[in-house]
């Protein structure tokens, strides 16, 4: 599930246009929706009756093995799927991201991701790059709001070298001043590039609106003033504070041997703190609170308006997270260039396509340790903003009152297919297992996951939709020519329970 949802890797600079943030809560009455007629076409490969199905026969993946070292590091491995008999992937997943930073140090986690490849006591930046290239390997990293990851894809015979490289850069990086100065410029240019990626920008604005004045609402790159001020001391302090054994998972998959990986990690990963403080404890000290806010950036020079509407979602381990995944799939996604719209199984996509209301639409569902975000993101022309807003909110609210078993079966089948399509090699297996160890404390077997999805039926969807939609706060992020977008109070009125 982690690979589907996300920990979204958002990277964006400070607001570049006139930005308004407003917080309030406001309700008015709304009219009931007309019930839609279920479409029998989507029963072609299924049944309208919920069934308990045993998927074990075609979900028998290689066994996951787990060992915990004395310093708290967990090592999880999964041997090769058939397509990866000669390749291996290994990485270090760390319970450390931008939400664990303070306002004055926001951006340190991402800055550290850049600096970790700039040389150690044993390897210069150039020799590290040459070593990886000579192996025909790939070494990479990314930072999200709750996790940081460093991983390598190598031929199976080079797994020991990959582990040695990861151990070296994570424990012995030197952070030379000239490299820090150079990376400031690299990150500032990256911020400029990200400003042109509207989806990245709008989701950063959405986090700022949904988690106002909380670290989850900060960008991953941090503001420019922080990037200019981050020092070697800040980088070293972040490592000593957050790169602790109990908050780290080494995950390997492909043509590997569990005992060999465990022995190498035990021998090489020796300098990390054994501080038992967990990420959950840090989150409980500063829990995220969903805020009813909006961020609007008016920019008439943009051809399209970008709008995201969000409600509070579920945490990773919340029992309601699976039904919300189904709800996300029910709402679906659509793009004008794809050529599929009025034939889509998503009622929202069909309506948007038929009425010509948008250029694209995407439902999203993002989980964090103590909260989540779910909703719909759309791009459209300025003249369609009002009509699009009406259709989106009608379809979101409809799920709490009227949804057919036909729709739910289709969404469950699509969700299961999507999950399986993401497991396509050793890299995907290693990433899935590493993330799940951090978020769930274990790797959830696919038969169990599919059984939980199959247990969701139409009444469950309506119950969960009622719980997370009706009378709940709404956050809005909008950018572009958005003068015609209804006020946030109007969006709030659309989730008012018509029976209250």
UniProtKB/TrEMBL annotation:
<dbReference type="Pfam" id="PF05193">
    <property type="entry name" value="Peptidase_M16_C"/>
</dbReference>
<dbReference type="InterPro" id="IPR011765">
    <property type="entry name" value="Pept_M16_N"/>
</dbReference>
<protein>
    <recommendedName>
        <fullName>Mitochondrial processing peptidase</fullName>
    </recommendedName>
</protein>
<dbReference type="InterPro" id="IPR001431">
    <property type="entry name" value="Pept_M16_Zn_BS"/>
</dbReference>
<dbReference type="InterPro" id="IPR011249">
    <property type="entry name" value="Metalloenz_LuxS/M16"/>
</dbReference>
<comment type="similarity">
    <text>Belongs to the peptidase M16 family.</text>
</comment>
<keyword id="KW-0496">Mitochondrion</keyword>
<dbReference type="GO" id="GO:0005739">
    <property type="term" value="C:mitochondrion"/>
</dbReference>
<dbReference type="InterPro" id="IPR050361">
    <property type="entry name" value="MPP/UQCRC_Complex"/>
</dbReference>
<dbReference type="Pfam" id="PF00675">
    <property type="entry name" value="Peptidase_M16"/>
</dbReference>
<feature type="domain" description="Peptidase M16 N-terminal">
    <location>
        <begin position="85"/>
        <end position="224"/>
    </location>
</feature>
<dbReference type="InterPro" id="IPR007863">
    <property type="entry name" value="Peptidase_M16_C"/>
</dbReference>
<feature type="domain" description="Peptidase M16 C-terminal">
    <location>
        <begin position="230"/>
        <end position="415"/>
    </location>
</feature>
């Amino acid at each position: 599930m982690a690979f589907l949802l996300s920990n979204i890797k958002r990277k964006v600079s400070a607001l570049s246009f006139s930005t308004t943030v407003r917080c309030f809560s406001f309700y008015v009455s709304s009219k009931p929706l007309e019930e839609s007629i279920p479409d029998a076409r989507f029963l072609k490969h299924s049944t309208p009756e919920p069934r308990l199905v045993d998927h074990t026969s075609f979900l028998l993946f290689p066994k996951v093995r787990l060992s915990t070292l004395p310093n708290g590091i967990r090592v999880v491995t999964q041997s090769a799927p058939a397509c990866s008999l000669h390749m291996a992937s290994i990485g270090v997943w760390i319970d450390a991201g931008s939400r664990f930073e303070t306002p004055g140090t926001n951006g340190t986690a991402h800055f550290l991701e850049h600096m970790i490849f700039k040389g150690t006591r044993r390897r210069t930046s150039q020799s590290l790059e040459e070593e990886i290239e000579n192996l025909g390997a790939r070494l990479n990293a990314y930072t999200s709001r709750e996790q940081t990851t460093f991983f390598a894809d190598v031929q199976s015979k080079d797994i020991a070298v990959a582990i040695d490289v990861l151990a070296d850069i994570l424990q012995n990086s030197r952070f030379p001043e000239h490299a820090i100065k150079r990376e400031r410029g690299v990150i500032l240019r990256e911020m400029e590039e990200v400003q042109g990626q509207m989806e990245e920008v709008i989701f950063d604005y959405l986090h700022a609106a949904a988690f106002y004045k909380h670290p989850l609402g900060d960008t991953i790159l941090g503001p420019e003033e922080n990037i200019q001020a981050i020092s070697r001391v800040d980088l070293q302090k972040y490592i000593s504070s957050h790169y602790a054994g109990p908050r780290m998972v080494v995950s390997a998959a492909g043509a590997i041997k569990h005992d060999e990986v465990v022995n190498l990690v035990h021998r090489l990963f020796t300098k990390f703190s054994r501080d038992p403080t967990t990420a959950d404890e840090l989150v409980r000290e500063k829990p995220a609170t969903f805020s009813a806010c909006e961020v609007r950036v008016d920019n008439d020079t943009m051809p399209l308006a970008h709008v995201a509407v969000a409600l509070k979602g579920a945490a990773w381990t919340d029992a309601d997270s699976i039904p919300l995944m189904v709800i996300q799939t029910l709402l679906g996604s659509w793009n004008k260039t794809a050529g599929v719209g009025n034939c889509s199984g998503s009622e929202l996509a069909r309506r948007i396509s038929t009425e010509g209301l948008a250029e694209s639409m995407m439902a999203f569902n993002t989980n964090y340790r103590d909260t989540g975000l779910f909703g719909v993101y759309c791009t459209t022309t300025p003249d369609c903003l009002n009509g699009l807003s009406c259709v989106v909110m009608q379809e979101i609210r409809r799920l709490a009152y009227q949804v057919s078993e036909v729709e739910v079966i289709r969404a469950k089948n699509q969700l299961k297919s999507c999950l399986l399509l993401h497991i396509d090699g050793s890299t995907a297996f290693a990433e899935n297992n590493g993330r799940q160890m951090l978020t769930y404390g274990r790797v959830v077997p696919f038969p169990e996951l599919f059984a939980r999805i199959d247990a969701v039926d139409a009444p469950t969807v309506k119950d969960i939709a009622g719980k997370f939609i009706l009378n709940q706060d709404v956050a809005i992020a909008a950018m572009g020519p958005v003068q015609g977008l209804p006020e946030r109070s109007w969006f709030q009125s659309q989730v008012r329970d018509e029976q209250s």
